[in-house]
Amino acid sequence: MANDPKDADARRAVAPVICYPTETLPQPDLDRYLHGFAGARVTGMAEAAPREACSFRVPAGSFFRIVSIKGPQVGDLNLWNADDLTERFYSGKTRALHGAHVTTGARLWSSFPTLRPMATIVEDSLGWYGIDPFGGAVHDVIGTRCDPYTGNLLSGVQYHHCCHSNLTRALADATRLSLPEAEPHVHDVLNVFMCTGFTRDTGQYFMKASPVRPGDHLTFFAEIDLLGALSACPGGDCSSEHSSDAAVCYPLRVEVLTPAHGAMDGWQPPEVNGYNRSHGR
User: pLDDT over 70 for what percent of the chain?
Assistant: First the structure.
């Protein structure tokens, strides 16, 4: 171990700078969205059984809501452009723009080269939670999803009901792709209802029991036509472990809500990102 330099404390004391200041980031018209949501009615429903995933479709200009229905349960969410699977949710850029955890007013951004809002959070029943004394908060865009490859690497197991595999099966069923064709489209997730953070001493990603209870929900406005998949994580409320049949797990429900006729008049889906893609050539 190298000795600390004489100016170590001064170097550590340098103030941080926000990487992506968001003062110029286009803001959602939440008043308009909430007006449309106020008269919306449920027109579709899907349910992710414990340790399984479901798929759903949401037309642009409609809403979808993820609901805890029987007990504390976290879910892993993937989103794609319903007409082009190569445009998908980009958790890393969403994290860079909105922070490690998202709530009302945050948007889920799509991958390059489109980089546009896919969905906007309009309602969060766990918005009260904030940041707890451990540094934990809910709805993270940190974790990658539990997967069979890491499980095999760490424990030598063959576990097939982790979120990655659940999402792969759900996407394959929704699109009629084979499992090998569907798997490359499964991507890093929004961990709905999951309570996470980083330890201050080692910087490790941690999880703790989710504060979610039956009736809690997270509601989104669909900015483009969406295909979604939601996995009811095999960790249940993630209070102790994941990728296991030991945790108590519950289902999650997805509701698709259609606004009343005319409620969203004048709204337009966002254009794809305006960068010309010349890359300096």
Answer: 100
